[in-house]
């Protein structure tokens, strides 16, 4: 059974998933994930039915080889608590179980916007990132040039247009970032189910 704890730090409630074969004192890779608008709340009810959590709860995902951290946004957007989010990110980064060379970002939709901004402000904390149907201040993409970034978007997305991904990708390429853009031709806004079901991607993520 996958071990998960419901925790709180300075007003941020979060889920902490442990590695399947956790050994106290050992350092592990970490997924630091920001959810989309549907996950907002204070009691994790919005997390129910999450494809990503479903994959982790199965126990056979490459993500089960490390820790996964899922803070919950209790306000309208991540930006309403952005200064607190930055402090929380650094708090998790400095936990004793974290392999600081494998502290990785992840975000979908609203969380995609949020995680881009976190990485722009704290680029030296992160090693790799997966961003689904997100966007942001692409003119500041050069700030993230040290991070290996994989971007995913649905061509038929009308909630967050795929141009957002293309603009960010173009600016990251200009900055010589290790970045790959994947556009799913038949996908609409929900491109994350397909993305996080790709175990080869998740193996790369925690390598």
Give the name of the CATH architecture of one domain. Answer: 3-Layer(aba) Sandwich
Low-confidence stretches: none
Mean pLDDT: 96
Number of DSSP-assigned strands:
8
CATH homology group of one domain: Alpha/Beta hydrolase fold, catalytic domain
Could you tell me the radius of gyration in angstroms? Answer: 16 Å
Describe this protein's structure:
The protein is of the alpha/beta class. It has a domain at 4-130 and 190-206: Rossmann fold, CATH 3.40.50.1820. It is 28% helix and 26% strand. The protein has an eight-stranded mixed β-sheet, with helices on one face. Strand 3 (28-34), helix 1 (51-58) and strand 4 (67-71) form a beta-alpha-beta unit. The protein is globular, with a radius of gyration of 16 Å. It starts with a strand and ends with a helix.
Quick recap:
The chain is α/β, with parallel strands linked by helices and 207 residues long.
Secondary-structure map:
Elements: E1 4-9, E2 12-17, E3 28-34, H1 51-58, E4 67-71, H2 82-93, E5 98-108, H3 110-121, E6 128-132, E7 148-154, H4 163-174, E8 179-184, H5 192-196, H6 199-206
Parallel strand pairs: 3-4, 3-5, 5-6, 6-7, 7-8
Antiparallel strand pairs: 1-2, 2-4
Which descriptors would you attach to this protein?
6 helices, 8-stranded mixed sheet, 28% helix, 207 residues, alpha/beta, Rossmann fold, globular
């Amino acid at each position: 059974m996958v071990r998960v704890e419901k925790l709180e730090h300075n007003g941020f409630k979060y889920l902490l998933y442990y590695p399947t074969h956790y050994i106290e004192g050992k350092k592990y890779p970490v997924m630091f994930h920001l959810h989309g608008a549907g996950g907002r709340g204070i009691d994790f009810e919005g997390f129910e039915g999450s494809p990503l959590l479903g994959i982790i709860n199965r126990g056979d995902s490459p993500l089960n080889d490390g820790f996964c951290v899922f803070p919950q946004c209790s306000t309208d957007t991540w930006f309403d608590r952005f200064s607190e989010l930055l402090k929380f990110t650094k708090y998790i980064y400095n936990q004793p179980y974290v392999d600081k060379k494998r502290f990785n970002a992840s975000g979908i939709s609203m969380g995609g916007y949020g995680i881009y901004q976190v990485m722009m402000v704290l680029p030296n904390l992160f090693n790799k990132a997966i961003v689904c149907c997100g966007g942001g201040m692409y003119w500041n993409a050069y700030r993230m040039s040290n991070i290996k970034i994989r971007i995913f978007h649905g061509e038929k997305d009308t909630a967050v247009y795929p141009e957002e991904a293309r603009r960010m990708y173009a600016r990251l390429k200009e900055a010589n970032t290790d970045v790959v853009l994947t556009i799913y031709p038949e996908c609409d806004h929900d491109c994350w189910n397909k993305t996080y079901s790709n175990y080869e991607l998740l193996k790369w993520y925690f390598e």
